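ok trying again, last paste got cut off:
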Amino acid sequence: MQTLLDLVHPEDAADRQQSIANSIQTLTPWQWTGRIVTPSGIVKWIHGEARIQKLVDGTILWDGLLLDISERKQAEQELQQAQLQIIQSEKMSALGNLVAGVAHEMNNPLGFIAATLKQTKPNLADLTEHLKLYQAVLENPGDEIQDHAEEIDLEYLLADLPKTIDAMVMACDRLRNISTSLRTFSRADKDYKVKFNLHEGIDSTILILKHRLKANEQHPVIEVITNYGDLPLVNCFPGRRDRVYNFSSH
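nice, full thing came through this time. structure:
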């Protein structure tokens, strides 16, 4: 006659057998929790407990019971899943606050660098113009001046420095856009809805995930075309929206 223990799930069979062997060897009460597969294919959780007695002739007597704990196990798993989700949410919130803080701290030095570079360009233009006046007046510079000009490639420097400054300004603007996007993307959830610009949210997500749009071994370059309508501010939870965009990108 087939018993419940004959229906033990294959993955739990070794553990059940080991628990029985331990009880026989030590003559201590047997306890075991595991899965069984019913003849209809349904997986259930059971918990077994038994007292063990060894007779003089060596016969082993078992006195115990088996309980169906499937509902309790399911409730425990749901609780565990809920706890994991809470922990994950707390981690994401903490990470979001950290990223937002770092992004905020980036803005001040970036703003200073960008402003300095923008002011440096007209100053350089003035110096270049002043130098050209010297060159116009000093028709026959000495060998030392001419040699030094050739050594440093003066003409190239005068033409290239403004381009270098423009590139640095563009890099600062790029970093400030990333900083702004990080703050938008990682804003913490509030327990109430706020007015939010969906276009800014989408743009921040695209900017942060831009590296994943580049061509690689799995796919060619991905081109994102944004054609926004005239949407008003939306009353929503921005943090939850950010996570939706993030999950949908995976």
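cool. The mean pLDDT is 81. Residues 65 and 200 are 62 Å apart (CA to CA).
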